[in-house]
Design brief:
This protein has 223 residues and is α+β, with helices and mostly antiparallel strands. The protein contains 6 helices and 14 strands. The chain folds into 2 domains: 115 residues, Alpha-Beta Plaits (2-Layer Sandwich); 94 residues, Alpha-Beta Plaits (2-Layer Sandwich), CATH 3.30.70.
Length: 223
């Protein structure tokens, strides 16, 4: 059954390994019913980490859909518990959602209030490529002004009839790179990745960009 909802957002957090699980518990304490945690690796460079020989760090990515009307209160809880308003404690961001179908059979059509989506200045770039192409994606993005990204791992599966998605084979292991970009740099980053990996070629990869309606804890290039 469809119902009109004041607004839904897809809440994301990217924090050090172990904190995603704690955030999920906080979400349940706040009345949340479900969410997903996946593992990833952060690639934002740090002079200290370079000295220690650490070039990437394990991350837990937590995401879930929440009502926009409860978004402010949830962000306050997250910031207070995990200190995301301080450097290097992690990031959280939201994306507007138009429609959601829940496991319990309920369906919601979202009518979100605009909170400066276009004025916020950030967008999320998702790049899905075959295993082994991650470094090229990050190098291309960096050349166009990106300060880093988060690497997620997925694996395609299915029958013979479902081995492709947009002409990309989904059986091999995939690498997914998430880059939060200043809106004025997004096109340059996308173009750089497309050129480096020849994305227009069938089977090379997929790039898509989504609006970001809220952020906290974003790295600004200052150590």
């Amino acid at each position: 059954m469809d119902s009109l909802n004041k607004g839904l957002v897809l809440f994301w957090s990217i924090m050090d390994f172990g904190k995603g699980t704690k955030l999920f518990r906080l979400y349940r304490e706040a009345g949340g019913k479900g969410g997903t945690i996946i593992l990833g690796r952060g690639t934002v460079k740090s002079e200290l980490l370079n000295i220690l020989g650490i070039t990437d760090t394990r991350k837990e990515i937590f995401f879930t859909i929440i009502d926009q009307e409860s978004e402010d209160a949830f962000y306050e809880k997250v910031i207070k518990r995990f200190h995301l308003d301080k450097p290097h404690h992690g990031i959280a961001f939201s994306m507007p959602v138009k429609y959601c179908s829940a496991i319990d059979g309920t369906e919601k059509i979202s009518s979100p209030e605009e909170k400066g989506v276009n004025n916020l200045g950030y967008e999320a770039i998702f790049v899905v490529v075959n295993k082994g192409s991650m470094d090229e994606v990050l190098e291309a993005a960096k050349s166009a002004g990106s300060t880093g990204g988060t690497i997620l791992h997925g694996r395609g599966s299915g029958t013979k009839e479902k081995e492709t998605l947009f002409n990309i084979e989904i059986e091999p292991e995939k690498e997914i790179v998430l880059i939060l970009s200043k809106a004025d740099k997004t096109q340059a980053i996308v173009d750089a990745i497309k050129d480096r990996l020849d994305i227009e070629k069938p089977g090379a990869g997929i790039i898509f960009v989504m609006d970001v309606s809220r952020t906290v804890g974003l790295y600004q290039g200052v150590e």
